[in-house]
Structures are given as structure tokens and as C-alpha cells.
Automatic annotation (TrEMBL):
Essential cell division protein that coordinates cell division and chromosome segregation. The N-terminus is involved in assembly of the cell-division machinery. The C-terminus functions as a DNA motor that moves dsDNA in an ATP-dependent manner towards the dif recombination site, which is located within the replication terminus region. Required for activation of the Xer recombinase, allowing activation of chromosome unlinking by recombination. This is FtsK domain-containing protein. Residues 400-591 form the FtsK domain. Keywords: ATP-binding, Cell cycle, Cell division, Cell membrane, Chromosome partition, DNA-binding, Membrane, Nucleotide-binding, Transmembrane, Transmembrane helix. It is a multi-pass membrane protein. The keyword Cytoplasm does not apply. ATP binds at residues 417-424.
Amino acid sequence: MTRAQAKQKSSSKRDSGSKVKNSSVTATEREKVERLTPGRVRALYGVVFMACAIFLFLCVFVPSSVGPLGRGIRAALEWLLGLGRYAMPFVFGACAIVTFAGWKKPGVRIGLLAAGAFMIGVSALALLQIPKPIGDMFASGQLSGGGGIVGAVIAWPFTRLTGKVGAYVFAMAILFAGIVVAFEEQLVFVSRRIRGSGRSRLDVFDARAKNKTGDAKDVCSPPKETGKFMGEAKVYPSKPTKPIPVREESCGQLAIDMSRARSGKYKLPPASILNRSHNKAFSKQTNDERKVAIEQTLQSMDVDARVVKVTAGPTVSLFEVEVGTGEKVKRVTELEQDIAYSLGSPDIRIYSPIPGRQAIGIEVPNHVRDSVFLGDIIDSLGPTAPHNMLTVAVGKDMSGKPVVLDLAQLPHLLLAGSTGAGKSCCINCLVSCLLMRCRPEELKFIMIDPKYVEFTLYGGLPHLLCDVINEPEPAAKALLWAVREMEKRYILLQGRRVVHIDEYNAIAEQDKELEAMPKIVIVIDELGDLMIVAKREVESSISRLTAKARAVGIHLILATQRPSVDVITGVIKNNITARIAFQVASNTDSRTILGTKGAEKLQGKGDMLLDPGNISRAERVQGAFIQQKEMEFLTGYIREQRFEEKVTIDLEDVASDVSGELRDRDALLFEAAQFVAYAGEASASMLQTHLRVGYARARRIIVELSQLGIVGPHEGSKSRKVLMTPDEFEEWKQRQ
């Protein structure tokens, strides 16, 4: 038994040793396979093709320098291809160039390209062999001076059956068929370009003919904007359109011409103040390797899917994946961790479907991101006009197109994200765009900066209605002033029977007795700070402004680094549909901002998800960047100009006139005031009995009546004195 046990132990040791050796060999083989990345394999093929091209060149043109092997290859090519032997070195050289450049270019199918090239080569050899006599077509002399044996095999049956003319027809047909198979996409693209240029020329000729015949008198619209302006940018929620001019009627009605602007000595800052970026960090080879890695991962999991398109953006690249018929989309979305592991990037984002396409989107961060400066996209806003005065440049999308927001249509904007994600830089870009497009009499700002340092450069500008506000109490007063200004403007619009501030200002252009109203943008850099100190006052004012202030030209830009429900309340979310989410800590914060996850996987430094409120899925945008020096140059350019004394608001008057309005009024306040005015005394128990409310609410109503000056102060156990008679109460009620 001991000998048998010893033999079993020795045999088990040998088996384990062999298993270890085999596992080590397979591990080394896997390492060797993993070391051969797609880039290295492509380089190896390129070197092989280039060596073959050089060797064939020497064989064909200098056969004496390559020995008997080279002379044998030359003779074989001469017999096989005839005159086509001179093209073989260049064919292999082209293959080397294509291999080094990368054959995984989206839209180029290598199989069809090779098939088309083969058809072109065979037809060309046949065309070279057709002129030869039919009886001597396979003679060695005819083969070397024509299309070789390949051309003779194709040309002889056609020439025998259809004659030389028919053979030429069929050979040319094969040639053109090969061109179509190989270069179909390029031919379609060229034909579309030719048709487009032909149509544009016909339009020019038609316009000239109309001008000659006098038909141009009815054309009132200016020429369309072309080139680098708003036609190439994405504008949210929609592209601003010029209003239709209203002509003056015979009855004396004022003409409304929205395209006319006020003239003055003030000059808008030029776009040359801003810097442009020059670096292009995108690497096509990196995305080709990622595409191969994604497809290999899907194939290893038995998923029938392939990458059909790759779009490189400033921060991330989008890989569009199409699944096969009968394959579940869920199988791809469940492989997020496996795909992230194969790419070596934990912050990928998978969503399905891509809006407007039957494809799954996989967003992968770039190793090196491109810089997007405000100067790169400021030209996409186009020339300033009254209908697009409040358009601002945000950044670039994943395809590199500029993204533009029209604040007049949004009409309010909420920004949220963690510290250092790019909120303040985004606000500076938005404000800089407005300063570069609007005169002081056209636009005013109210800036609230609880951080004390973000808006210091804007101090003293003529666009400010008041100095930059840093404390919560004056901030609440400023918001309350904006509410009262909104109500005053609605009264003015009602008096002129118009529904929008643009219509009122158009009338003010013609009627010198009226004064045009500037648009007002309220910018709050940290909403969370205000909500901690004066939540009721701030939330009440913001809810009223966001609900009604659009028609009178008052807009809000709110930012916070605390995307929680106590800061971004339901009232604020319902009234502000346009939101920008920067990088946050968790998907809970992302859901608070956008209603969906995704912001927790952003890359920071301006990487954002933009939801203008009218698209099904938030769009990923790389926000623009503006440097401190550029802001100094911009504000300095504005301060150096001569302008009239700026209009300011007095927040102290707001506090003295409506000190009680800083708090929300109870819904039963007027009924309680009327009751105590006619009763002659007031107490919480009386209101509790009359209004049928609890004691706590009745006590709060008594305090509010005291703040409004209707009842007197507390006098112990006695009822409070009523300071208004019934007649005085009725007058006070009418004033309210």
C-alpha cells in the first residue's frame, strides 16, 4: 500500500507539474497575443507591403540587381500580366500607404474596394489584349506586349463570340462596374456637390433676372446668413427668427419694425478680444483601436453587434453600435463594465437608442481633450439683431459643432454641479456673450455673488442696475424689486395693448414719448447660500419671476453646487425647464437636476449635460472656457467708453415700502384683517374660532397683521388693539 501511495503521489506531482507548465505556456502565449495590438499588426502589414513594392520595382525595372529569383519573378509577371507588370510595384505601394494610414476608417469597406480594384485590373488587361490577332493571342510575344495570360483568357472568348467591338463594349462595362463597386460613396458625394453648385448658380441667375425685371421690389428680407454664422451651430430651444415687419396703414397706425436698433456712441466689444485655440488632440488611431476592442468584447460575449460609426468630440468620442436582427439591446447595455474594462476607462456611458437613429451610443472619454475657447464659437452667434440679442455660446457638442442657447426662448436657466466642475466659468461665458452683444440701454444685470469673488470684474459696468450683491438680505430685496418691476411692466404692456416687451420697444422706437424698457438678466452664482438664510423669501420671488417674467424681458440664470431637493425645490424645477448638469457625486444628484442619471460620469472641467427642455435626451457638451485676462480686457474695453450716468435701483426704498412682503402671506390674511377691523379687537382664539383653523396658524396670522400695521403689539393676556377703522381697511385693501 505504501508503494502504491508513493506511485500515486509521484504521478500526481507530474500531472500538476505538467499543468503548471501548460498554464505558463498559455499565459505567455496570451501575453504575446495581447502585445500585438491592432496598431502594431497594421504596422507589420505595412512594412511587408512596402518591402514587396520595392522588390517588385527592382524586378520589373532593374532585373539584373535582384539575381535569378528577381529575373524569374519578372518573367512570370511578364507572362501572367503582360504590360500590367509595370503597375504591380505601385499597387503594393498603395496598399502599404493605405495600411499605414489605417483601413478601419468609418464608411470605407475594404472588401468592396478590393473587389472593385480586381474588376478594374482584369478589364484593363483585357482591353490591352483585345487588339491582338485572335489566332496569335496566346503567343508569348503577344502576351508580353499586351495583357498577359489573364487578359487573353478574358479577351479571347469575347472577341471570338462578339467581335472586337463587342469585346470592347463588355470590357468597358466591367471597368465601369468595378469603378462603381470600389468608389460608390465618393461618386455619390461628388455628384451631390455638382448638383448643389448647379442649383446655387441657377438661383443666382434667377435673382439677377428678377432684379432686371423689377421683381426684386417685393423682396423685403435681407440676404441669408451664410458661412460661419448660426447656420452651422445647434441653437436651443430653436433658432431665433426675425419678426415680420408691420407696415404703416392708412389710418395712421404706427409701423412696427423690429430690425431697427438704437444708434449711439457706445461700441460693442470686438470678437478679437477673445483668444482662439490651436491644438487638436484627437487621435484617429486611438479610436480605431477602441472600436476593435469594443467589437471583440461583444463577440466574446456572443452578442451580434458591430460598431458602425465613430464620432470624435472635444472631450468624449461616441461609438454607435448596431445590433443584429433578433438580438436584444439589453445584452449590450448590460456589458457596460466589461466594455469599460476592455477600454481601460471606467467613466463610459451607454444609452439606447441614440435620438433619431437605430443605434446604441457608447461615450468613451478621450485620453487628451481638446480645448474649447469662447473665441472659437463666438462667431457662431451671428451678427447682433433684436431677435437674437440674448443668444449665448455654450460650447461644442460631440461632433464639434457649436452649441448656442437663446435665453429669450428658454427663458430661464439652471446650472448645478459639484465644486470645480465649471459652473462659474460657464456663467462668465454667458455673461461675456451678453456684454459683447448688448448695449447698456438694451440690457441690465442684477448680479448676486455670495462667494464675494466671482463677479468682482463686473463692478462698475454700465450694464449693472446695482452693485454686485454679496449678502443674502439685499439679495432677497433685489429679487423682490424684480417682482415689483415685473408687475409694473405688465401694467405698461396692458396700457399699450401688447403682449411682449419687444412689441412695446418697437412702438417706443416710433413714439418719442415712450421710453424703451431694457431687458433684465438676474444672475445668482450660489443659490444654496441664499436658500439656507432666506429660503421662503427667495423661493417665493423666484417662483413668481420664473412663472411670469418672460414676456416682460426678465430672465434668471441660477447656479448651485448643492444639487439637493432642499435647494432645487419642486417649484423651481417646474418653472425652469432648461438645465445644465455638470459633474456631480452620485446619480441621485443627477436625477435631482435632470430627472435621469448620467451626470455622475462626466469628466469635469466644463463637461456638461445640456437639457434645453425640448429634447428627449440631454446632450453632452464641452463647455467653453474664458480666461481671466480675456475678462479683464472685455470689462476694461467697456469701462473706457463714455456713457451716460447709469440707472441704479435703491434697495432701501424696497425695504421701507414693503417690509412685510418679504414673507409669504397667509391665504386667509385679508379675511382675518376684515374680521378684526369690524370687530375692533384681535386675538388668536378669536381667529381660531372664526376662521376654523388651528391655534398655530391663527397665531401666525396675528403676527402678520401686526407686521402690516393693522393690529397693535402684544399686551399680555389682553386682546390686541386694532389700529384701522373699517373705512381705512377698505382703502388699504384697494391699495393692495
